[in-house]
């Protein structure tokens, strides 16, 4: 047994001795959690060890981020070496070699032409960075009036003011609605339960009509005022909404026609989730910018990036007149621990051919997910690559309660799933085996039978 196992054993003897009152937990019903805390103590491979000692199969890659599984030795070693070797280096006006190597290695995984890389520390920062690049690009080309940003209903783009403005989740916006970015509009979301329920992979209906809503927004606002459209190729956080066939292709055609930049938020779809390096590669649609985070570092160190087309990058640099071209950056952009984690993570993906593994597993994963059809409460099942959403009929007067109950019961039975509204989301590490895929969905089937 390794050090992690020993650490886990230690934790099992004393679940926790912490005072829970000081920590204000993010996106959590704090009072409810603190009354019945569920705590994780250690992680290795496909499993968490809960604080009470029971093993929990990680059906969600943490928060869609630990794509190579937990506690991977090459990543641990790279971070440890780097911490001892170069703990921190600024990236403003000075560089460190690993940051350039990491950028080249990320660029090599991006679609052709998107090979300029700006480092951030999170998905939210990547989104705000991409929106600012879009505005700077148009201004650099003498089209500074192109300031309008278009997101999508049910889009999740993190929690910066830019991200919640283009995002389409009402509760994330409500308390701050007076100060959201001006000049933002939204496309309709692409979820159509009546026509597309229980689609396997990409739904057949809706690609053109949903994408053509962009033509209506262009007609309304005029193309000359619109800077960029941002969408998740597959919307993860709002319940696994798979793009209908033809939708992304058409968004690309319309944005191109009108000189509007297209941003794919690939914080979830990047790094193998769909069985390819990016959603862009999976769908065969190349945007102008791609936002990345999560799987870029296997979540071992917070990290994110924006991959930018040469055209967009060069336009901004050309306008720079020899000075700083883009007044933007973070103290921790290209933090040495992050670039070390990124390089080691990409090495694991490559050495273990994990994107191909995800692609090969997507068929048995789809079978296992759709085997839940006909189970109590299940009104839709959606899947693509190694991600699935199981939508439950809401309990009368208590939307979300069924999925929350199923989540708790799965955890107690040793399987971690995620819930958002009444949808359960499954997105396991790409190292998962077929037996473990079976266990996730069989546990869900058992649990659903016990949910009112
Ligand atoms: N964009 C997408 C598509 C996401 O799924 C997320 C997080 O789930 C974010 C942005 C925000 O990332 P972070 O929480 O790292 O800021």
UniProtKB/TrEMBL annotation:
Key words of the record: Aminotransferase, Pyridoxal phosphate, Pyruvate, Transferase
InterPro entries, per the entry: Aminotrans_3, Aminotrans_3_PPA_site, PyrdxlP-dep_Trfase, PyrdxlP-dep_Trfase_major, PyrdxlP-dep_Trfase_small
SUPFAM superfamilies (UniProt xref): PLP-dependent transferases
GO MF entries: beta-alanine:pyruvate transaminase activity; pyridoxal phosphate binding
This protein's record includes keyword Transferase: yes
Co-factor(s): pyridoxal 5'-phosphate
Pfam families in alphabetical order: Aminotran_3
PROSITE patterns in alphabetical order: AA_TRANSFER_CLASS_3
UniProt keyword annotation of Transferase present: yes
Enzyme category, top tier: transferase
EC number per UniProt: 2.6.1.18
Taxonomic superkingdom: Bacteria
Family: Belongs to the class-III pyridoxal-phosphate-dependent aminotransferase family.
Protein name per Swiss-Prot or TrEMBL: Omega-amino acid--pyruvate aminotransferase
Species whose genome carries this gene: Castellaniella defragrans (strain DSM 12143 / CCUG 39792 / 65Phen)
